[in-house]
Predict the 3D structure of the following.
Amino acid sequence: MRIAMMGSGGVGGFFGGRLAHAGFDVSFIARGAHLAAMRDRGLTIESEAHGNIHVPKVRATDDPASLGPVDLVIVSVKLWDTEAAARQLRLLVGPRTGVLSLQNGVTKDDILRRELGDAPVMGGVAYVGTQIARPGVIRQTGTMQRIVLGEYDGRRSERAVFLHEALRKAGADAELSTDVRKAIWEKFVFLVGLSATTTTMRKPIGPIRADPRTRAFLLEIMRETVAVGRAYGVALPEDYAAQRLSFADGLPADMTSSMHHDLERGNPLEVQWLSGAVAQLGEAKGIATPANSAVCAILALHAAGRKEA
């Protein structure tokens, strides 16, 4: 099967690079200096935990139309680029193509469905710490390289089984889920809490979880998110926020979020699709979300980023 990585930064470059290194037919859609470096020198993944790999020749382009229809598209662009990316995806999607988003958030696939219809869209979530270290080089931090994926109706489709097995062959910890919507919300609960607190407070998780007031705010952010998910029929345990807080206690004290990094770099923020989505979805179900709404207000003047960035 032919695979296209729509977005080749930290997440797309990492998993796409591993798939290409394992011998699968992978094309990378990228832009700028990163694209130029991949064309000239291939793609390198640096990882202290799992060892470095180098793919000397990769198929990389900034024009999806040049690839034609493929069997699978893995989307990992920033959330603010989703609608534009989805319009470009039409050029890659054939009658049986699967589209798997590894982006953050729980509304990402709704955007893809509006542009592509229901049939192509699969569900997925990634757990990995990566970034573009320099053009053509992806650096992994930590040990996690996990993907949970599946069809929204729970069936074991040919495309889902193939991608699951391909990722495992490539060295990823892949899981084929029969309830992928729940898996997406499970990550979303903690991601919203981590992103909201680290970005508004400009601090990593360590001091946030140590101070009683900021710890309580982190817990409340996640409680609201759980309440909204449960209102939409997602089978999250009632005490799931407390479980995630215990999980946070075991993380490295210097861990932060990509949204915090984006704030420091002057990039646009994903707050509209994180705390903003909690507030919007909650309002539609009559669920109060004052903590998440406050995060949106605090970050409103930074959400669009700095133009010079």
Remarks:
- The chain has a mean pLDDT of 96.
- The chain has two domains: 2-178, 182-298.
- The chain has twelve helices and ten strands.
- The beta strands are 2-6, 25-29, 43-47, 53-55, 59-61, 70-75, 93-101, 121-134, 137-150, 173-176.
